[in-house]
Amino acid sequence: MTPLPSHIHRLGDDHVNFWLVTTPDGLTLIDTGLPGHWPAFTAALKSLRYSPTDITAILITHAHPDHLGLATRIHQLSGASTWIHRADTDLAAHPRALRRHARPERPLLPYLLRHPTSARTPLHLLRLGMATVPPVTATHTFHDGQHIDVPGQPIALHTPGHTPGSSSFLLPEHGIIFTGDTLVTHDAVGHHHGPTAICRAFTHDSHTATTSLQRLATIDADLVLPGHGQPWTENIATAAHQALRHGIT
Questions:
Q1: Residue 67: left (phi > 0), alpha (psi -120 to 50), or beta?
Q2: Cβ-contact 82, 147 below 8 angstroms
Q3: How many CB atoms lie within 10 A of CB 184?
Q4: How far is CA 30 from CA 59, 68, 209, in A?
Q5: How far apart are CA 207 and CA 95, in angstroms?
Q6: Where are the beta strands (DSSP E) in 86-183?
Q7: Angle at CA 165, nearest 5°, toward 161 and 166?
Q8: Which residues pair with 73 in a beta bridge?
Q9: Span 99-151, pLDDT tens digits
Q10: Fewer CB atoms near the end CB (10 Å): N or C, the chain?
Q11: What are the CB-based long-range contacts (under 8 Å, 24+) for 172-175?
Q12: Taking a C-beta distance cutoff of 8 angstroms, is the pair 205, 246 a contact?
C-alpha cells in the first residue's frame, strides 16, 4: 500500500476508493462509495476517533452510483454540505437513470465477453447496493477553478467526459489531486492496470474525456488519488500522458 499523508485517508475497498481529508477545521469527504460500505466506513472513522456526524463537507467527483452511495445518509446525520458540479446535479438526483443523463458510448456486454473475469467488479458493486443508491441533492454547486470553502480548501477542476460534470479536486499546498474516474489506475472492465480513463462502457464522451486528460497533464501535483486503483506517486502529468498513450478502449 502506498503511504499517504497523515491527513488523507483511503476508504472503500479493492474496487472503489473514496477519500477523507482531516483538518483542524473539520472533515471533507471526497466521494462516498456505495451503501454497503457503511459498516467499514463507520469503523474507519471510529479508528480515527470520528463519527459520521463529524463530516463537514462532501465533494462528489461525478454522479455515478459508486461515488454517491453514502452521501444522503451522511448529510442527514451530519448536515454536511454536498457539492456537485452543476452538470451532474440531475444525474445525482436520479442515479439509476444513467442512460437518460449520461449515456455511455458503448454497451457493457462486449467487454465482459472479451474478458469474463471483468464481471466480478460489476457484480461486487451490485452486491454493495449500486442499484439502490438513493437520490442525492446538491446543497451547493461549483464551477471550474473555484476555491471551495470547505476543510482542505480544494480547487475544483471541471474534467468532463466520463460524465458531463466529472471533476477533479486539487489540494495545491500539498500537491495532491483527487481525480475520480477522469483518471484511474485500474479499469477492471476495460482490463487495464495503470493510468487510464475508464472504458467507454462507463464513459459518456470519450473525446471530451481525452481533452480532460490533456488538461490534467498540465497540472502540478505529485500524488494522484483516483476513484479506482492504487494511488499514483509519479505526478499527475506522468499519469495523464500514460493514460493518453493507452487511449480509451
A1: alpha
A2: no
A3: 27
A4: 5, 10, 20
A5: 23
A6: 140-142, 155-158, 167-171, 176-180
A7: 60
A8: none
A9: 888 999 999 999 999 999 999 999 999 999 999 999 999 999 999 999 999 99
A10: N
A11: 172/220, 172/221, 174/5, 174/223, 175/220, 175/221, 175/222, 175/223
A12: no
Residue type (1 letter), 245: R
- Quickly count: other Cβ atoms within 10 Å of residue 113's Cβ: 10
Kindly compute the dihedral angle of the four CA atoms of residues 18, 23, 224, 146, in this order, to the nearest 10 degrees.
Answer: 90
Cβ partners under 8 Å of residue 137, min gap 6: 72, 82, 92, 93
Buried b (16+ CB within 10 A) or exposed e, 32-57: bbbbbbbeebeebbeeeebebeebbb
Size of the chain, expressed as the number of residues it contains: 249
Q: Tell me the C-alpha distance between 46 and 82, whole Å.
A: 22
Helix/strand/coil (H/E/C) assignment for every residue in 69-103: CCHHHHHHHHCCEEEEEHHHHHHHHCCCCHHHHCC
The amino acid occupying position 106 is: R
